[in-house]
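User:
I study polymers; will you set down one protein's sequence and backbone structure tokens?

Assistant:
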Amino acid sequence: MAGHSKFANIKHKKEKADAARGKIFTRLGREIAVAVKAGGSALDSNSKLKDVVAKAKANNMPNDTIERSIKKAAGDLTAVNYEKVVYEGYGPNGVAVIVEVLTDNRNRAAANVRNAFTKGGGNMGTTGCVSFMFDEKGVIMVESGNNINEDELMLMSIDAGASDFNAVEGGYEILTAPDDFSSVRTALEEMNITMISAEVSMIPQNYNTLSSPEELKKMNKLLDLLDEEEDVQNVWHSWDEQTG
């Protein structure tokens, strides 16, 4: 991971998310609903909900909107019936793609995701066809500045359970095992460290580059089509967007 930061991509995605804030808030609201149904509405006793709320705050979701989403889910548990499904496949030039959806209609989600792969010059594969090429890790991005001392932040992160710490262009990348993500994120929060992104992600072990304009056009189309799908929550891929 060291030396191949996706901090610039995180920033880019955040800017795109800001431009489509309503859509990202809808997705976060769905994640909140699923977390509340699974473990209740109390943050102190529902670590999954705490993680989703932290993710929501990192995406600039207002506190009152978060609270309304939690109350709505808590008061309408019978109406929350989303199922998490993960699809895997390939984009142009063998780029590995993992798509995570929360849906109330598995057939609709599968058809729409398959259509996106097809129109984007790729193909949807079977479960497990690319996931072995990724490592599941907690990823916390902290922007530099605001009197943050790199050595102190690194020691604080490692003491809290982080597995790796990288200084990257524009900030710091803190990696954790999935089981340690909540405790590390909480420790940083308690120290008033502002996180630009905080979530458990699928990190590719190797990255693919796209050289031709046609490949780039198809890959961007695939990602845009997936982004437009209401059921799609997360998309992880092995395309190195920084070098093509």
Summary: The radius of gyration is 18 Å. Helices lie at 7-19, 21-39, 47-58, 63-75, 106-119, 150-160, 181-190, 213-228. The longest helix spans residues 21-39. The CA atoms of residues 11 and 58 lie 11 Å apart.
